[in-house]
Amino acid sequence: MKPPIYAFAALLLAAASAQAATAMDPAALRRTVDAFLQVQSAGLPGKVTVTVGNIDTRMTLADCPAPEAFLMPGSKAWGKTTVGVRCAAPSRWTVYIQANVSVLGNYIAAATPLPQGQAITETQLVTMQGDLTTLPASIATDKAQVVGRSSNVSISAGTPLRLDTLRSQPVVLNGQMVKLVTAGSGFRITAEGKAIANAAEGQVVQVRTQGGRSVSGIARAGGQVEVAF
User: Fold this and answer.
1) Which of 69, 159, 165, 205 is most buried, most CB within 10 Å of its CB?
2) Where in this chain does the record put each SAF domain (predicted)?
């Protein structure tokens, strides 16, 4: 017959073994977070790399057959983020795990110094590559987004271009004589008027007709303004 102390130690060892057998595997938690972020980041403009942070090995969670990952309100699969993982049964628990989603993609930068207010040409631009999650949300990712626009400030060479600091060049100028165009099914009417404000392509502009009326239309290249019928 075993002495009582040995019997007690055996019971503790058996209990610990049983607990370890039913504890949630930290590797399974990390796989859950990784798979969740891979789905959430699908379709992002670049090569996505998901890195899941370490899990405190001192934390013991009951094993869960179907852990569910989720993002906190206001969070997204972009850059440094926090992912929650919860279990509904057989035990209820929730844990939060740090992760990072990097997106290696192209962005547009100035190849030469860009003076304030001057229209930007394609030769003044260069395509660079980097982690888009570390750049401003309004970063330009295609030269077509930039060409023809101008900057609100002077920009030095190598600076990434932000769309919120660029403005479109006007296609209609204040005081310019423009052609008013109204078209419909089987007809097209044109008239002349004078623009009373600057407007970029696609912007609404006010025009005063030769008869003195003020009408609104959509500014188009070539000094035309489309007026809805």
Assistant:
1) 205
2) 105-167
